[in-house]
């Protein structure tokens, strides 16, 4: 396998302002992801979209058939770009993502999306486990404030911790603009 693909994870309406579960910095992350998407399309790099969908319409977010579960217009797929629908945190779990990537001779991924501490983390680790080379565009991923043990953890700290952990796990962590510039050559 030799090709690189852009993997866009869960950039869906519910994560944006006015949605059911808005993330900190989601608009800037989507803008960076959209820049990578444009560069990938210009270069002919395969693009695969992942969309999370809860089986229940009344889910807290990403309810089946809701506008909130739709991919955000900033990174809307083109007809020839596969959209993998998942119901788990890990984009590879109980989906055909690995088969789709293999059918395109993909051996490396550039990952963008949301949430950094959940689905981006799980997909990145699974991809590494499956033998893919992974680059994560850190500024094209977003998260939210979290809490643990009575302490509030600001989204910026969550993001830094996740990027450090994924880099330690073997992913390359780079800014989206730098990757896009390389693709534009």
UniProtKB/TrEMBL annotation:
Keywords: Hydrolase. One of its GO terms (molecular function) is hydrolase activity. Signal peptide: none annotated. Its EC number is 3.5.1.110. Residues 4-145 form the Isochorismatase-like domain. It is an enzyme of class 3 (hydrolase). InterPro entries: Isochorismatase-like_dom, Isochorismatase-like_hydrls, Isochorismatase-like_sf. PANTHER family: ISOCHORISMATASE HYDROLASE, PEROXYUREIDOACRYLATE/UREIDOACRYLATE AMIDOHYDROLASE-RELATED. This is Peroxyureidoacrylate/ureidoacrylate amidohydrolase RutB. It comes from Starkeya nomas.
């Amino acid at each position: 396998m030799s090709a690189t693909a852009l993997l866009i994870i869960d950039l869906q309406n519910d994560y944006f302002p006015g949605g059911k579960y808005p993330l900190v910095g989601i608009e800037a992350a989507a803008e960076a992801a959209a820049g990578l998407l444009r560069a990938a399309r210009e270069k002919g790099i395969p693009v695969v979209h992942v969309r999370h969908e809860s089986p229940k319409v009344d889910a807290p977010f990403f309810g089946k058939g809701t506008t909130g579960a739709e991919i955000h217009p900033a990174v809307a797929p083109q007809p020839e770009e596969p959209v993998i629908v998942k119901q788990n945190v890990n984009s590879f779990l109980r989906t055909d993502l690995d088969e789709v990537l293999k059918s395109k001779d993909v051996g490396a991924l550039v990952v963008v999306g949301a949430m950094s501490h959940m689905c981006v983390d799980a997909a990145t680790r699974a991809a590494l486990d499956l033998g893919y080379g992974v680059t994560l565009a850190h500024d094209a991923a977003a998260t939210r404030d979290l809490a643990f043990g009575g302490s509030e953890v600001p989204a910026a700290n969550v993001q830094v911790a996740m990027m450090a952990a994924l880099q330690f796990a073997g992913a390359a962590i780079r800014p989206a603009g730098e990757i896009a510039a390389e693709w534009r050559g």
